[in-house]
Amino acid sequence: MDALHKHLDEARDWTIAVRRHLHAIPEVAFQEVKTAACVAETLHGLGYAPETGVGGTGVAAVLDTGRPGPCVMFRADMDALPMQEESGLPFASTHPGAAHCCGHDCHTAMLLGTARVLAAVRDRLAGKVLLVFQPAEEVAGGAQAMLEHGLFERHPVDWCFGQHLWPALPLGVVGMKPGNLMAAMSWFEIAINGKGGHGAMPHLCVDALEVGTQVVGALQRIASRQANPLQPTVVTVGRFHAGTALNIISGRAELGGTTRTFDTGVWKSWEKTLDTVVRGVCDSMGATYELAFRPGCPPVINHPEAADIVRAAAAKVVAEAQVVEPEPTMGGEDFSLYQERTRGAFTFIGAGVEGGRPLHNPAIVFPEEALATGVALNCRIAWDLLA
Ligand code: NI
Questions:
Q1: Which long-range contacts does 307-311 make (Cβ < 8 Å, 24+ apart)?
Q2: pTM
Q3: Residue-wise pLDDT tens for the chain (387 aa)?
Q4: According to a count of CB atoms within 10 Å of the terminal CB, is the N or C end of the chain lower?
Q5: Under a CB-based contact definition with an 8 Å cutoff, are residues 366 and 169 in contact?
Q6: What is the Å distance from ligand 1's center to 153 Cα?
């Protein structure tokens, strides 16, 4: 552990500098070209031989000690959000319309810090470490793309760990919970076709806007009337476009949104459920519809043994009282796709500060002190499993 301490101290400012560089060049899902190049170049500099283009813009690197032992995977996400940053930071986004308001720049930097420290202590380890820099977490497509690219076939993994900076937990706290942590999610888009016409003559039209409002209401009643009240369920319509003028009945309405649940059976049946409800409303009003559905990803369910490993490691990084069990969230994470295939745990790193803002807020400022906690936790987990 002393060996780790020295290298963790040395990596602290370096990790922050890497993070600031990444923060200034945010790139949205599957467009992480500069980010991936920076990651690969940094890994090269640390003595790794990274694979690039894994599932699009993903990067993977292995620390192979040459000695027998387990393969432990750590994953960071690299993508930014399609929004304008308003943080006022000196290293704020230089890319208009893209911003690291979910902290994925921090996650990437923390994993590079981990790569640096573990490379420095590799002679004390036995087994392998797989470092996964994933694209496109925000659209829940990056993990799938990397797995379809054969990531786990090339690198069979025994354990997987991921982290997210979490403003809902105070800085200095580590949140770990076995079992359900983050919800399964899916995406849907619905186009409703009616018959447009004069605003004064509804009897000659099929008002797609009005049908759309009924669809929105019917979708809300899935959560309130069909779902088991003991199972948290969310249906959110986040977009609704219809109409052009005050006296024109709209012939088309387009809406879309997302669903959340912890129940894998409910998650798998969403497409059918949505289709049944939308068809019922449209049929009753003489409209037709198109439903485009994307299944998203399953729930993040932390493996009890993996959760114990994280808790034990965290208690050596922060005070034991600072290791807490966080509330589950209906937010989703495609880290769950790795957990479907191997034992894994996803950790919340406390990043909450007085007057702070929530994730995805354009003016959010992440406390950089949290980065050292993330790096130390990863390294301690690797040390506990491989030393
Ligand atoms: Ni995120």
A1: 307/176, 307/177, 307/178, 307/179, 307/345, 308/178, 309/159, 309/345, 309/381, 309/384, 309/385, 310/161, 310/174, 310/176, 310/345, 310/347, 310/377, 310/381, 311/176
A2: 0.93
A3: 568 999 999 999 999 999 999 999 999 999 999 999 999 999 999 999 999 999 999 999 999 999 999 999 999 999 999 999 999 999 999 999 999 999 999 999 999 999 999 999 999 999 999 999 999 999 889 999 999 999 999 999 999 999 999 999 999 999 999 999 999 999 999 999 999 999 999 999 999 999 999 999 999 999 999 999 999 999 999 999 999 999 999 999 999 999 999 999 999 999 999 999 999 999 999 999 999 999 999 999 999 999 999 999 999 999 999 999 999 999 999 999 999 999 999 999 999 999 999 999 999 999 999 999 999 999 999 999 999
A4: N
A5: no
A6: 26
d(CA 315, CA 181): 20
Distance 55 CA to ligand 1 centre (A): 19
Question: Contact, 234 vs 330, CB < 8 A?
Answer: yes
Q: Which residues pair with 293 in a beta bridge?
A: 188
Closest CA to 172 of 5, 353, 309, 310: 353
Residue 6 alpha carbon to ligand 1 centre in Å: 30
Tokens in use for 213?
């409002």
Beta strand pairing call for 184-193 and 252-261 = antiparallel
